[in-house]
Amino acid sequence: FRSVHASNPLPRELGRWSSALRPALDEPGLLSLPLIAAMAPPRKPGKGSSVRLAICLVTTLLIGAIAYWNIRFVYERKQAAERVAVAYEQEKAVAQEERTLRRAQIDDGHGRRRGGEVDVDASDTGANDTPSLGAAQTTPTALPVAAAVGAAGIGTGLSAAGQAKRDAALVEQKRMADAAKAAFCGPLRPFHTLLTAQSTTYQNWQARIMHFHFQKQKAIAGACGEMGGFSRLVAHGTGEPDGLEGEMPSIFVTEYTPADLARFKHFAVMNRPYSVVQMLASPELMAGIVEDYISIAETDHMMMRPLPNLASFSEPAAYNFGYMHSHPGTQRIISQITPLVNWKQCQPIGPSPAILHINVLRKLTPKWNEYSIALKLNDDADKMFGWVLEMWGYSIAAAELGIVHKVLTDFQTEPGAQSRMSVDYVNQYYIHHYTYGSEYRLDGSPQGVNQIGEWSLDKRHYGGAYPPRDLEPPPVGANAAACWLVQAWNEGIDADPDWPASNAFGTIGWRRECSNEAKMRAHPVASLLLGSKWSWAGIVPGLEFESWCAVKTPWSAGKWGLQTQSRTCDAQCVQHSFWLEFSGALHSLTLSSDGRALDSTRIGDGEKVALVRQ
Question: Which one, of 40, 42, 49, 19, lies nearest residue 31 by Cα?
């Protein structure tokens, strides 16, 4: 026994470990038990002694293993905490260095800075002459600047209005920091929400509702929230205001011309990367953005709960789009755009929703814009990627630059009538993206795939007019998402005293089904129209009612049918009018008392047209 004890180093090692184990174990004295047993005076050899020795050694090994893993756990946890602290200090140091550089730079009014960091003419709007803002030319134009900089933008290259905007943003940033400190929230990483948009009726009403819910959730977040400033980035004409800048902070940039959009097959989403390129190239446009992080949002994003900063200095955060997953078949297209990217590198992400550091955005944006253009001008790519093509431009650009995103499934949700959503879904996601319509029958069952419902809440109904106030609630049986969304629309609309009046349907009346022949023959107006021909605003030939459902027009084939009672058509209206649809527009038509004229009112904008029987 003594011989075994003398040649075995384990008891001696345990003796040295016991002091190191005290932070890890509540009862470090437990380690002494096998050690004491091993060092006890020897007894007479026998079977019992051998068993006790075996038990002692096995116990020693087990406790040694437990001690090892406890020490390793404590050590790794300590190392992880140190790494987080170091990363945080590094991020603070980089931000501080950029702030110092920002204070020192002087702009000559055309985007060119002393020291050669950037040489970009912000007035250049050529589609293929994208301003170069690559990694080697990254500049800290969007980072905070000391409030002590001279009044009226002296030393910053900003106009008086730009300097006032920056000063106001810095005051708000300081207010948030002071409030967080007073509430013992710890260090915050506020981000600036950038709502990319175009100045159209369709996107303006969405932007107004989105901005309302942004403000609501920012207020709910309170002192510990990281939702900082807000800017609507608007592609509008040559960059002139559109009238909504008094309601929400807005940045206006040049939009693509009709000729440019014709090259892009009228895919207006191409304005998004082009808008960001212009904004980043102009200190004047960036004057109100003082946060280190940017959250890119869309007009049809509805905030459901306060959004924290989900990104880090080196790792952006983005949503996991189920319809964006790359596969070997996409390699052929990717290789035509860049030989540097393998399909496995492309993440299922787009530029929105996404949160990223301003320097990452500067590095990524030029190639995002360049590759979006290249994909759109490539017929094979256009056919494969369709309406998500610009999102693929972002994903491919990120893959080439080695920018790996944190891909999140709870960033947003995109439910439709077929989705199974619990009542608590608003606490599971941050954003409700209403890209799909909610289509239901009035009995509460889903209408069906790619069909307009008897109850319908779809943003596409309101391309030419604002949604009306007090939208009708969904039928009993609709999912929680439809119930929440219509309430959220109504809440945003009701909070806006300047919300325009609308001639559009609410949520009932959009479904257009051809009525059967018996009903059409029994209708006092429809029964008089079969086979008749009418001029349209003096245009001949105009309309011809070819059958009980089909209408021939100079522009496209159409259809017609009996009205459904709704907020815009009461019971009397149903008996004396009918609906007409062609070229994507819906009209309500009423026959004159002598049967010689039809009055058409377009649903939405209320445009009226006179028709005369031929």
Answer: 19
